[in-house]
């Protein structure tokens, strides 16, 4: 049975919606408030509007409210308030084949937040932001225990350690986001602030996009025997998010639902901007799934 819109799951999904090596001789810094806890429970957001951000808390510049939206401006803009050239942001989720953490049978997991180029291609390991290889230690240093706990539940590696996955995602993708450059933090910059901002924004966006709930709410639930029309899944998730969703499948016939990529532009910086659901089609926007797909229950290890 599809859950009601007043279920605990839906309340939880929306209550948290805003929410080179790191040097070992870290400076003494004031404790940053936990950005996942600064707001109380929220009413369900309108999924057709832009995603309002959290206050970055990390010394980034205040960007104008009337600034351009990424991939929608041909003139040069403030590089700390305009994401370029990777201005199309993809929040990517997995439906894993197995349960990694007890109680996560009904959870999609986070793969990453990727800055694709405006033509649908992408760069990687760009060097616009510094590299970090010990993400857990950085987040612990900045008092992000709650964020780290949630990442260990929902941002899970299929192979190897979660820390290795996070470092891979950060170094491959976050280093291509120009607003995370140290110069955008001004004179109060200390190494690791950009790490906090990237993972807070990625995880907060993920928690707003409860793919399991969106599908179950219209009767699409994991089942070994059923198949579902891909068009129904596509339209359901696009109505839910307000923008384009790219679906990826596995299996010999590409008929096993495995990934959902939610596509956004950003008005302002990654740290403090609004995520605006993308409406357009573009190179690379097509999924690879068959017309009818299986949505398989997770298996325990």
From TrEMBL:
<dbReference type="InterPro" id="IPR036430">
    <property type="entry name" value="RNase_T2-like_sf"/>
</dbReference>
<protein>
    <recommendedName>
        <fullName>ribonuclease T2</fullName>
        <ecNumber>4.6.1.19</ecNumber>
    </recommendedName>
</protein>
<dbReference type="InterPro" id="IPR018188">
    <property type="entry name" value="RNase_T2_His_AS_1"/>
</dbReference>
<dbReference type="GO" id="GO:0033897">
    <property type="term" value="F:ribonuclease T2 activity"/>
</dbReference>
<dbReference type="InterPro" id="IPR001568">
    <property type="entry name" value="RNase_T2-like"/>
</dbReference>
<dbReference type="InterPro" id="IPR033130">
    <property type="entry name" value="RNase_T2_His_AS_2"/>
</dbReference>
<dbReference type="Pfam" id="PF00445">
    <property type="entry name" value="Ribonuclease_T2"/>
</dbReference>
<keyword id="KW-0255">Endonuclease</keyword>
<keyword id="KW-0378">Hydrolase</keyword>
<comment type="similarity">
    <text>Belongs to the RNase T2 family.</text>
</comment>
<dbReference type="GO" id="GO:0003723">
    <property type="term" value="F:RNA binding"/>
</dbReference>
<dbReference type="GO" id="GO:0005576">
    <property type="term" value="C:extracellular region"/>
</dbReference>
<keyword id="KW-0540">Nuclease</keyword>
<dbReference type="GO" id="GO:0006401">
    <property type="term" value="P:RNA catabolic process"/>
</dbReference>
